[in-house]
Structures
1.
Amino acid sequence: MTAAVHVHGHDDHSHAHPTGLMRWLTATNHKDIGTLYLWFAFSMFLVGGVLALMIRLELFRPGLQFFRPELFNQFTTLHGLIMVFGAIMPAFTGLANWMLPLMIGAPDMAFARMNNWSFWLLPPAALLLLISFAVPGGAAAAGWTMYAPLSTQMGMGMDLTIFAIHILGMSSIMGSINIVTTVLNMRAPGMTLMKMPMFAWTSLITAYLLIAVAPVLAGAVTMVLTDRHFGTSFFKAAGGGDPVMFQHIFWFFGHPEVYIMALPAFGVVSQIIPTFARKPLFGYHSMVYATSSIALLSFIVWGHHMFATGMPAAAQLFFMYATMLIAVPTGVKVFNWIATMWQGEMTFETPMLFAIGFVCLFTMGGFSGLMLAIVPADIQYQDTYFVVAHFHYVLVAGALFSLFAAAYYWMPKWTGHNYPEARGKLHFWWSMIAFNVTFFPMHFLGLAGMPRRIPDYATQFAGFNEVASLGAFAFGLAQVYFLFFVAIPTIRGKFGKAPDKPWEGVTTLEWEVPSPAPFHTWETPPDEKLVNELAARQHLH
Amino acid sequence: MVYKLKHAMAGLIAAGWTGTGMAAYRTDMQEPQTELARRVLGIHEMMLYICIVIFIAVFAVMFYSIYKHRKAAGHKAANFHENATVEIVWTVIPVLILIGMAWPATRVVLAQKDTRSEDLTIKITGYQWKWGYDYLQDGVSFYSSLATPRKQIEDFHGNAASKGEHYLLEVDNPLVVPAGKKVRLLLTANDVIHSWWVPAFAVKQDAIPGFVRDTWFKAEKPGIYRGQCTELCGKDHGFMPIVVEVKSQAEYAAWMDEQKKKAAANRDDPNKQWSLPELLAKGEQVYKANCIACHQENGKGIPGTFPALDGSKIAQGPVADHLHLVLNGKNAMPKWAQLSDSELAAVITYERNSWGNKAGDLLQPAAVKAARGK
């Protein structure tokens, strides 16, 4: 690109970009699109949260007090789908959109218009999921896993869900292509792959996982669709199909999906802990290799979701050993984070608190995951509240806590304003305690024998269900507090202007631009000297 | 709603005060009742304790560091990174621990999968929403449905009956097995996937339509053991419990004799002509056992989900179409061909002559027999 064209292009953008609603509808700027993603994800998080509270309301006491079982099943199904596809995944894509170009010194994402399209596919998909509550027969009620042949029995709500998943899958694939292309082609001069911030690495690997498995999910739900309406028998035994095949296909998507939600969280935490320990990440290289190993292993462990389907002993053993192996790279990550803190000079601002909370609770989720990998024990845990506890430790205390950590960490850069430290800490402790009050007792419920996805339960499970329900409402309230007493006042600038470098120990490029980050950044790539200097401070050569 | 919340709060406080409340806070697995279940519990406890020890060890280091290496405590950041020895150690040690876990687990997996040399084989069929049990060697079969009255379950107006001791974990006909015998279970399903779980036996096996899977247990002492369906199977997934009654050898033999006699007495005489009151009386029983979950006791169904029978075209149209639908199913309506000729004749007659339906005709078991397979 010649200098003249460059200057012309620059004028064009900074003076003529649309304002108001059109700014967002026609957004091609990575920061605008990142903002859209993040707000969309937070809205869906609230919707999914309300569904969760409906579930906990019904489960507060034994007996059916509020909802009929068919509606309860719709709540559990949509809670899962909305949290996974509407909240966690878009939030990480939004984070990648906002931060990747800033962190690797690129002016924008590689495909700006496709970026717009991949975001604007999300609201219609969410709408399909939400209006499915109003169609005859209600929303899909077969669980977020949509196991056939139960899903072939559902009403129209299932079709809407299938189309929503198709659209969400397209959006994910486009978002991922954008991330891969941006990271591989648009890094600043001097920034080799092995000098990239960890968040760029985990986003890159996550994007590859998504490109690999999103089409698999689309295939699975399309087969359900044709079984439902076009007389095929992929999953109908009467026509020569196999109901269990759905589970194999679903979990071939589903297990990498777990890491799609976890790896970016690892990336976020790997940025935050070194900053607040004022010490470089202990083992950058082993972190990269551990992340890659987890990604590769995630493709060969799907069978551990299906131990109770009755697979042969050899298959059970294979999936058990493969799953146990994942503990090794995951352990390496946890040890690395702790070694990073060791002999550091730690301060405990809100992002660090959420990051430490993440490390503790994610590790607990990892341990219960290891227990679930052990076939004989899994036969007892499978489809009980033990599993519910396990994946909420991984996804709420894991993915969600890392998202809050990220929000507090980068909020000064996004908004140009300080966030209220005391309120942030209150939000952390409130969430931390309420989370454990909600989900820790679920381990006990599962061990004592309470199956998941039931609207009513035997009286022996009453005690911990009450505790869990109270915790859930407290947790929900904490997030409303975050919205009204932290996020919105910060955006309005109630707590003062943020410096360009709000944190002492930062060593990445996003802190080299002003706060708030201007509409266009790194139109001229950062100086190679700067890139090398920052890398040297992280001991990356 | 406010009433219900108050009610719930009162219950919470009461649970905290009374001794019975403590039973509601069980934190570990149920007492194992088979050799295999004890081994499974052993594996669970081994895993749990190893995980707790590692967790405490690792996080003791982290919290020590958090306490000592704070800026507030005046600690200055060191500047080290990457240490091959440390990194090899923390990769190799977990691998060794994992091997230590995998070895005993593998032995239990192989024992769990060994369904050979059984004393007794029972076929279990999952239905929406009950279980069917077939004693293959004895020709005895029956259904097992939830016995908890709806009055105890539905509390939408705050006036549910008080809940019994085995609320939601009681059935009309439990599975009966002899103590000390290896029982092999063959599992399949009629409609969607279900899962048969009895925690005290550490047996959980999905029942998959169109496929047969097997598992086994060998209960040691007589008693009543309870479990639930553990695979989401639709509306009443939470309401299809499992009850296994383990009897001594002699009691089991006596029970089996009685079942055989009952089966012989109940066997349909296809040529018997039934009267309308006879069919209506039997039909009402069959309807309550099989149909009310969807179509409801008043025949109104659930609008938008399950069609009403009261006033329906099928229940007032030609009887042959009605019979065809019940025998073959349609969409969410499963096929009911597994019911006997007299049961089908009775329930169809009942549906055609109940609520506002006044078809006036009656269907004889012989006609059902003739229509099967068409």
Note: Chain B touches chain A through 109 residues (CB under 8 Å).
2.
Amino acid sequence: MKDTPLSNCERDFLLKAIEEKKRLDGRQTYDYRKIKITFGTDYGCCFVDLGKTRVMAQVSCELVAPKENRPNEGIMFFNIELSPMASPAFEQGRQSELSVKLNRQLERCLRNSKCIDTESLCVVSGEKVWQIRVDVHMLNHDGNLMDAASIAAITALCHFRRPDVGIQGDEVTVYSPEERDPIPLSIYHMPISVSFSFFQQGTYLLVDPCEREERVMDGLLMIAMNKHREICSIQSSGGIMLLKDQVMRCSKIASVKVSEITELISKALDNDKKARKAGGRCGFAESIPQERITALKMDETPVEMMDVTDRANDIVQKAEAPPQTVPSPVVPAPGVGQVGQGLQNTWGLEEQEESDNSGEEQEEIKTQMKEKKDENRGGDVVEISDSEEEEVVILHPEAPDKLPKNTGSGSHQKGAATTKKRQKK
Amino acid sequence: MAGLELLSDQGYRLDGRKATELRKVQARMGVFAQADGSAYLEQGNTKALAVVYGPHEMRGSRSRTLHDRAIINCQYSMATFSTAERKRRPHGDRKSTEMSLHLKQTFEAAVMTQLYPRSQIDIYVKILQSDGGNYSVCVNAATLAVIDAGIPMRDYVCACTVGFVDETPLADLCYAEESGGVSSLALALLPRGGQIALLQMDARLHQDHLETLIEAAMTACKGVSKVLDEVVRQHLQEVSVLTGE
């Protein structure tokens, strides 16, 4: 599926906002979104949240024969997977331009900068070396995939432990983690990519573009650096013309951002280490306890809210009293089914009262079982239709004639249904 | 390769060049009659052939058509005999796809695509012999081919690689230098305005050296642009003599 194109209105709006130095999510020009790093129960597995962009990295290893021209070096393999899960614009199976670009950039950022000691991955020269495979999966695309991927990949590599091996004669033994402690990779430095997007032919510059911003940008400059202020790779993309000064400025900003992010990663790694040492519970289940898919989770918005409380109070005071809610489900017309009828729902306190009431009623019913059903039903109807009418008058004052009848019959029906149920009990 | 001395004490490089010296550039335009524009360019031992078709109507999927400008379609390939080891796939692997992407991006910045809405310009580049600086040689060859095709550009696009050894920037790296663990930077420049159409760097380099390196790359690119300009002028002279004007 092709991505839905951005409307001209939206495009103009975004560009105008950028001209006014404003961003949709209230960030400043050089601000990153919130970065969150969580680890899995296994070594070498991590999730990175960059705002709403979400990326997972998993490192794995296996023993393979080395490449012919490098007999005593381990092999690094990087793969970025753009699944349709992250965005409908990503297609399964095909190597899109974006995927090639990201893959190559990650390779350049981590392999060509020689951040991992590949020689330490050699087991038997010319015969057996470790192949370290880094799989980065995009889970949610909200812009700036490259930065998220680079953070995830390097964090996962730092977190990873490979099994220990022993060599006796020609025999190579791979020890399980129970026998010998697994060994971390030797990592010299941590390259982290920082993306800059350019707008209006390079007049405006933003750090960490979100998805919307990426769609209106003219070009992108990715600079990968480590905390020693060494540039590991630079890549410009998109048809823009840069000036030397812009590149220099970007590299300065990048060095600041990289040191911040490196700090964050080492902190996250430390925390995880401590948690593991303490024997406490670690992994995703612990680090993300409250995030249910169905929950209406709202992040705190970094938008200015000066007099919002006052205004909200004002509105609340001026507003009329809310109509009495109908606690029990209402069948709008005869013959319409209701899902979950008869089940207890757990919505609020009023419900509690209601259920108490019904309990009482049920007791009544028990005592009056022998009497006529009609009486019982009648009582029910009156009660429910009362509350019905109140609500109807408030919501639709212009059509009061028709609705009460309907609802009356409906509630009647309902009353019948409930009594039938009760009888069954 | 570790013991290789890339820059001698006297300031000479492996192939006897000075640090800022470019390799010899030789080029011809209009090497094919069939294509709209073509060029052959040698930079030292790296040889490339570029062919341009277009601007013409969209071929293939029409959905890619842009209503306000032309799209540029690039394909980079390396001849199977171009490197020391025989290549299995001339194009289609990750590196070539990336190179095609970069070429496309470079020429999208330089060609005045807005003059040809709803059309397509094809640029095919083939490396015949690879001896370092493949990207820059491709860009230089393609520039000549685009000029030969008569497609208006903002300026010549000139590209050059620069390495950094012993605090000295080396211009126009050859293969031995490239693979010798030098941090290299490839830069495509529009020399008149000093605008960078593409910037790409591998390997580690301290931030403080970036400026000198970019500076050196820009000077090298300007040197290339002079050579290209000469080639174009000479070609035009030859053509005008032939047509009797």
Note: The helical segments of chain B are 94-110, 134-148, 175-179, 207-242.
